[in-house]
Amino acid sequence: MSTLEQSVETASPHWWAVFQRFRDQHPHWFLLLAMMLVALLMMDFSTWLVLTISGAAMGAMLFLMASGMTLTFGLMNVLNLAHGAFISLGAYAGATVLLFWLNDQAAASSLWLNLASVVPALVFALLVASVMGLVFEKLVIKPVYGDHLKQILVTVGGSIILMQLIEVVWGGNEIPVPRPEAFSGAVVIAGIAVEKYRLLAVVLGLLVYGLMTWIIERTRVGILIRAGVEDREMVEVQGYRVRLLFLGVFVAGSALAGLGGAMWAMYEELITAHMGDELMISVVVVIILGGLGSVKGCFFGAILVGLINLYVGFLEPRLAAVATVGLMVAVLMWRPQGLIPVIRV
Fold it and tell me: What is residue 8's predicted lDDT score, i.e. its pLDDT?
């Protein structure tokens, strides 16, 4: 223990012990609150509040995209580096519905008509990514279960093929995706303007996080999946088909990637075939930051990445590009296993 820690502990042993216990037992909350407090001290309150809400929205969309990869790695021990291709696929599928099938509803000023375009776009992105995930698991992932090196090689190759298929179907040019009218602009809360779409992203991210946590921790299916990861033979002896459970997990992970891609398309209002690959850096950082395979860690890691991007981008734009990686390095030096690691037997 350093001299500073000894002096502080001597002066106020109770509060220092509480601080240390909170830091060690809840590192995700400790880091989140510390980051927000430091940012608040460096800018005025209204700017801080806008950046915090915007960063949380960005983090919520990153969580939607990263949660699928966390799911497949945490519950199946499958390292799928083609995840970015599924993000791009979901973005193009959702944009197709918005641009061609329900263009009039998306351009209307009515909230309900806009929802009538956004919801089918998100559902279609989920379905397309799910079907492609089913095919991908059967053809690419199934032969390489249990071998991470082969998984890296075949999923990178599969990603290239999926990217080329996207360009064959939709073309290689950038496609603008107009945001639905009701979710454009901002809403004023306590005198502070907040983008409507960012609020939608926060709500959707919280709903997906809550649903994933409930399914994995509270339902019979989640218990069987976790038991299958720990002892597959024991679960199969009980008459359950772990193979089908794992297939469902991979399809769900692909669907979440598609959902996140569709949300990101409306956020950026421009999509390209390689947008998923560009986002994979942030996705991988989120997964490593939170702890490999941890859904809760993925959620907090995504929020932290979203916040630091906007905080640093506002304070010093030249450092914004390295802020995310710098945060990951700092956390790994402090906690090499990530903020909320999943313990494997």
Answer: 47
Residue type at position 323: A
Spatial contact of 230 and 345, defined as CB atoms under 8 Å apart = yes
Mean pLDDT of the chain: 84
Q: What is the pLDDT of residue 106?
A: 59
**CA 147 to mean position of chain CA atoms:** 25
Q: Which residues contact 98 (CB under 8 A, 6 or more apart)?
A: 106, 117, 118, 121, 177, 178, 180, 266
Confidence of residue 15 (pLDDT cuts 50, 70, 90): confident
For residue 78, which amino acid is it?
V
305, 297 contact by CB (below 8 A): no
Q: How far apart are the first and last CA of the chain?
A: 32
Model confidence pTM above 0.85: yes
Q: Is 193 helix (H, G, I), strand (E, B) or coil?
A: strand
Query: Worst-scoring range by mean pLDDT, 45-49, 256-260, 292-296?
Result: 292-296
At 330, phi and psi to the nearest 5? -65, -45
Using DSSP's 3-state secondary structure scheme, residue 19 falls into helix
Q: What is the rounded distance in angstroms from the CA atom of residue 139 to the CA atom of residue 118? A: 32
Q: Do the Cβ atoms of 88 and 264 come closer than 8 Å?
A: no
Q: Hey, CA dihedral for 83, 86, 88, 94, is it positive or negative?
A: negative
Q: What is the pLDDT of residue 7?
A: 52
Q: Which residue has the tokens 């990217």?
A: 163
